[in-house]
Specification:
Arc Repressor Mutant, subunit A, three-stranded antiparallel sheet, 5 helices
């Protein structure tokens, strides 16, 4: 015989799991959208583009962890310090576009947009 309480708990856990999977799917769709980037951005590597998309979508401060997850997901990737390398390379490529990445030491990064991009 099976315990009806365990059956109900199992059903609830499965429903919650399914809801969380759908939420993750929607978040990934937003984060990894194939929407074209503004034309002012130079040719970017896939990692640079992923980091830039996170900075563009999240207004204000973006943690290093958020960029790391965008690049490598939840799997074990290389050292988190590599985010600094991608941000450094991205900064160089953004020169002359009006966009700038500001570091908030110990907190993360913020993408500063030119006035015409903010108004749009």
């Amino acid at each position: 015989m099976t315990d009806p309480i365990l059956i109900e708990q199992n059903r609830q856990l499965r429903a919650e799991r399914d809801e969380l999977r759908e939420e993750v799917r929607q978040l990934r769709q937003q984060l990894f959208s194939d929407d074209p980037l503004p034309a002012c951005f130079p040719h970017l590597t896939p990692n640079e583009e992923s980091a830039l998309r996170v900075l563009l979508r999240r207004r204000g401060l973006v943690t290093k962890e958020a960029i790391y997850k965008a690049l490598y997901g939840h799997r074990d990737g290389p050292d988190e310090k590599l985010v600094d390398v991608w941000v450094h390379k991205l900064r160089r490529k953004l020169e002359g576009t009006g966009y700038e990445i500001i570091t908030s030491w110990g907190r993360g990064y913020e993408l500063v947009r030119p006035p015409e991009a903010i108004a749009a």
